Amino acid sequence: ALITTAGAVLLATLAWVGTWLGIRGMGYQDQVLASSFLPSALNLFGFIFFLAAVSTLVSAFGSDRRRTIGIMCGFYLVQLLFRLVSGPVAWLWWLEYFSFFGAYWPELLSVHPNTAWTEVLKYDGALIGFGLLAYAGAIVQFNRRDLPAPL
Q1: How many CA atoms lie within 13 A of 131 on its CB side?
Q2: What distance, in Å, lies between the first and last C-alpha atoms of the chain?
Q3: Could you tell me which residues come within 8 angstroms of residue 15 by beta carbon, excluding any fewer than 6 positions away?
Q4: Contacts of 16 by beta carbon, 8 Å cutoff, 6+ apart
Q5: With helix as H, strand as E and coil as C, how does the chain read?
Q6: What is the Cα–Cα distance from 5 to 111, expressed in whole angstroms?
Q7: Which phi and psi (to 5°) does residue 43 adopt?
Q8: How much is the CA Rg of the chain, to the nearest whole Å?
């Protein structure tokens, strides 16, 4: 969990540094502030942290990697479908509240700099909070289960 979290920090940092280098390299540093993309990078960290935590929770319930990967792929796809359907279909707006993608809006955070920091606190609070709950559940489940003997 610590290595994965450090990797998430590194990925989010490198994403922001890449954006900063792109702005500088294209000569737009006078028109675009690279700091306006910091909330988006933090939102990326929260997103990665949440997915890693849920993956750890699913993995703690079994010892088969393929099953864990399958469950996580299914979970991700269902969540993505909830987000995709909740936007254009007006009467299904409520599905967004059942998708973790409802807390992942890096494009909106960079477009609305006036509210970006309050929004990223709200979004990342949810993602990191549920991620911490998933890690706590994984610890409890992992300590209860009996690991199979090595083959």
Answers
A1: 22
A2: 26
A3: 41, 44
A4: 34, 37, 38, 40, 41
A5: CHHHHHHHHHHHHHHHHHHHHHHHHCCCCCCCCHHHHHHHHHHHHHHHHHHHHHHHHHHHCCCCHHHHHHHHHHHHHHHHHHHHHHCCCHHHHHHHHHCHHHHCCHHHHHHCCCCHHHHHHHHHHHHHHHHHHHHHHHHHHHHHCCCCCCC
A6: 27
A7: -65, -35
A8: 18
pLDDT confidence tier of residue 11, bands split at 50, 70 and 90: very high
Tell me the C-alpha distance between 16 and 42, whole Å. Answer: 9
pLDDT tens column, 111-133: 988 899 999 999 999 999 999 99
15: tokens are 């994403």
Residue corresponding to tokens 């991700």? 76
**What would the two tokens of residue 6 be?**
């450090």
Tokens of 36: 């306006």
pLDDT tens-digit series, residues 47-64: 999 999 999 999 999 878
Tokens of 116: 């970006």
